[in-house]
TrEMBL record:
It comes from the Bacteria. Residues 6-97 form the DUF3817 domain. The keyword Oxidoreductase does not apply. It is found in: Cell membrane. It comes from Nocardioides jiangxiensis. The chain crosses the membrane at residues 6-31, 43-68, 74-93. It is a multi-pass membrane protein. Keywords: Cell membrane, Membrane, Transmembrane, Transmembrane helix. This is DUF3817 domain-containing protein.
Amino acid sequence: MKLFPVYKVLAYVVGTLLLALTIGMVCKYLFPEGGTIQSFGETFTPIVAVGHGWIYMAYVVAALLLAMRAGWKMTFLGLMLLAGLVPGLIFWVERRVETKIRTEAPALVG
């Protein structure tokens, strides 16, 4: 099995869950207490947070293995890992990873 497609799917899932978590946090903390939207945020946030946390761990492993196989520097790996913690950044970083891997290590692309 090629590692890059696994990384790509995990990146999109982590990014989507992080955006959903951000929306849940906005609903939970920026809307009036006891309202429907605030109540939704209060219920939704812990579920998405746990899902993001578990899938982020799989993303970390996939990013680490991919960076090791491609021979990338630790700074680029750090950017890959940080991207899973900043809403929206992972989509930009995933495109950079795809460009970099296709030029530097095309054998890793499925």
